[in-house]
Amino acid sequence: MTILALTGGVGGAKLCLGLARVLAPEEVVFVVNTGDDFEHLGFHISPDVDTLTYTLADAANPVAGWGRQGETWHFMEALEELGGETWFRLGDKDLALHVRRRELLAAGQSLTAATAQIAQGLGVRHRILPMSNDPVRTLVHTADGPLAFQHYFVRDRCAPEVTGFDFHGAASASVNPAIPFDQVTGIVICPSNPFVSVDPVLAVPGMREGVRRSGAPVVAVSPIVGGAAIKGPTAKMMQELGVPATTVEVAKHYAQRADGGAPIVTGFVIDAVDADAEGEVQALGLSTTVAQTVMRSLDDRVDLARVVLDFLGASAAAPGLKA
Amino acid sequence: MTILALTGGVGGAKLCLGLARVLAPEEVVFVVNTGDDFEHLGFHISPDVDTLTYTLADAANPVAGWGRQGETWHFMEALEELGGETWFRLGDKDLALHVRRRELLAAGQSLTAATAQIAQGLGVRHRILPMSNDPVRTLVHTADGPLAFQHYFVRDRCAPEVTGFDFHGAASASVNPAIPFDQVTGIVICPSNPFVSVDPVLAVPGMREGVRRSGAPVVAVSPIVGGAAIKGPTAKMMQELGVPATTVEVAKHYAQRADGGAPIVTGFVIDAVDADAEGEVQALGLSTTVAQTVMRSLDDRVDLARVVLDFLGASAAAPGLKA
After folding, report:
1. Minimal CA–CA distance to B47: which of B193, B205, B180?
2. Does pLDDT of A260 surpass 70?
3. Which of A42, A77, A82 shows the shortest C-beta gap to B106?
4. What angle do CA B119, B122, B123 make, to 5 degrees?
5. At the N or C end, where does chain A have fewer CB atoms within 10 A?
6. Cβ–Cβ of A95/B84 closer than 8 Å?
7. At CA B144, angle to CA B141 and CA B145, rounded to 5?
8. Å between B292 CA and nearest CA of chain A
9. Which residues pair with B128 in a beta bridge?
10. How far is B4 from B11, CA to CA, in rounded Å?
11. Residues 6 or more apart from A19 whose CB is under 8 A from it?
12. How many CB atoms lie within 10 A of CB B265?
């Protein structure tokens, strides 16, 4: 059995940690969004890959959700004194990861190889795979004009009104060849932002085809609970895009492809507070299960991982899903 | 009046601080050895330039002599965990200087411009000029084979027996065009290592010519006191090169050119403990003065700076020295 988990940042990493506690390293592969990546201060910054790496290493900052536990900021303070850019915060320990990654990439290693070596150094035994070794950059179209993702997300704190998204480079990127689609028995779309975390992953040529080729059931966990996003700008984006910020709309987003392609999601995990939406989601052709999806404790993460794995098992058993 | 001070690392920086306390920013220019520079962890490391910058900014670590005051080491600890090279210590604050310098150099600025902008950020008002904007790399020939300077000096702690030196790139380097030779009225060779701090500076094409063209007196301060070096491997190197570690031998090194070229040093500052060597040094054709050259306090630095400036004034007044 190999489970594929498609994930973005903090919210997705919580479920990934649950999966990593329930599944052995050979039983799960984490496929991470790199649409958030950018070059800054001469470093390759890969926020979602690093959030997952630190989370699986139990080295993540539990309060901020990003960066390292017990981080210090002497570099940033000194950089400010020297007139450097400080809107994107890099801690003293986090810098070591970035210096090391630059060394590995400069030595000709792929982002996948560099990610693996860094994760190993931090004691992570599960596989973390960037969605692609090629650059894909999420561009956020806003009322103020297009913004590189981190400028929208970090520098401007998601304030500009969103009108759409582009994934620069996606067309010419290749799906990470290390993703073992042929062994995959189940696929999880983590409760990450559908527009800027999951869609970039699915936009990489070969990703949807690989998912479909695997014939495995695909279950998505709703990032919207009771009309709000647990974390991040998902709900705000939906409102700005003119759709209600509801779990049903997220299900629609996954069940209906704007580009007319066949949908890949087969099942949808709804939070208990949205249980009454189950019928509407099923009407979209998705099987459903209701669970406690808000992950406050480690137990919450493990419990949701178990629910998702059971749901995948049931989905796999159901007829017609391999079609 | 413009005084030119040729300097290397810690010992030279002490006298430079004294000169900076006595002279206004427009009255002195510090010309710094960059033969110690190297690329490490993707950064341009310039130890002597940084030691002087931090010293003039009152930001230097008073104990180590290199690096920043109140430095922290979280980056290094995390880098070690990730399997990075840690033999060359870069502190969290010091990293900011290196990230900033890389940005400035990558933007096409010269080492001189980058050095000036960083110094300004740290509140330094005096001019710090790298000897050249071109790469010159000191190679230390040892019984164990040739070593890049920092490998000899830091990684191997000066243990290998020295047999000679090369200044790679010197032949094709150009002297820093910002050095105002035509306005120079006096030149100080700081009490730095003659072989690996001062000789690389003098090896840059145009440096000796500029010094000679200025017609200014050139006084060197002995880095050897009572047969020992105040700091660093000078005495050990002399012994390994088969010359006694005495102030007279340093004077000879400056008064006699191995390559047969005309010597540029006109005066030599001897420490009080070596006063009895004055006759021997004068016999080499150098004027002399005796002073307390061991700089423990800031007052010591200022006092020696005054002695050197008085000696330059007297030397300039003396006949024949402009020849």
Report:
1. B193
2. no
3. A42
4. 90
5. C
6. no
7. 45
8. 37
9. B30
10. 16
11. A3, A5, A28, A30, A188, A305, A308, A309
12. 22
- Nearest chain B residue (CA) to A91: B75
B50-91 pLDDT tens trace: 999 999 999 988 777 778 999 999 999 999 999 999 999 999
Residue numbers of B between 50 and 79 with CB closer than 8 Å to A: 68, 71-72, 74-79
Min CA distance, A43 vs chain B (Å)? 9
Is there a contact between B99 and A122 if contact means CB atoms under 8 Å apart? Answer: no
Q: Return d(Cα B304, Cα B230) in angstroms, integer.
A: 15
Min distance B171 CA to chain A CA atoms (Å): 29
Q: Where are the alpha helices (DSSP H) in chain A?
A: 10-22, 47-56, 74-81, 92-106, 111-121, 149-150, 199-203, 207-214, 234-240, 247-255, 278-282, 298-317
B118 touches chain A (CB under 8 A): yes
Reported ipTM: the value is 0.87
pLDDT band for position A258 (cuts 50, 70, 90): low
Region B215-227 average pLDDT: 95
- Higher pLDDT pick, B232 / B261: B232
* pLDDT tens-place string over residues B113-145: 999 999 999 999 999 999 999 999 999 999 989
Give the whole-angstrom CA distance, residue B76 versus residue B87: 10
Q: Write out chain B residues lying below 8 Å of A71, CB-based.
A: 74
pLDDT for A173 beyond 50: yes
Residue A118 to chain B, least CA–CA distance (Å): 6
Closest by Cα among B232, B229, B242, B48 to B164: B242
Is this structure's pTM higher than 0.80? yes
* 3-state DSSP assignment of residue A300: helix
The C-alpha atoms of residue B217 and residue B47 are separated, in whole angstroms, by: 28
Q: Taking CB atoms and an 8 Å limit, are B79 and A102 in contact across chains?
A: no
Q: Does B172 touch chain A (CB under 8 A)?
A: no
What number of C-beta contacts closer than 8 Å exist between A and B? 100
Smallest CA–CA distance, residue A42 to chain B, in Å, is: 7
Q: Which residues of A touch B69 (CB under 8 A)?
A: none
d(CA B202, CA B216): 15
The pLDDT assigned to A321 comes to 43
Residue B102 touches partner A, C-beta closer than 8 Å? yes
d(CA B230, CA B223): 7
Confidence at residue B74, expressed as pLDDT on a 0 to 100 scale? 97
Closest residue in A to B98 (Cα) is A79
If DSSP codes are grouped into helix, strand and coil, which group holds residue A221? strand
Q: Which of B83, B93, B103 sits opposite A78 (nearest CB)?
A: B93
B122 touches chain A (CB under 8 A): yes
- Report the C-alpha dihedral over residues B311, B314, B316, B317, rounded to 10 degrees: 180
How close B92 gets to chain A, by Cα (Å)? 5
Rounded Cα–Cα distance for residues A297 and A295 (Å): 6
- Answer whether B41 sits within 8 Å of A99, measured CB to CB: yes
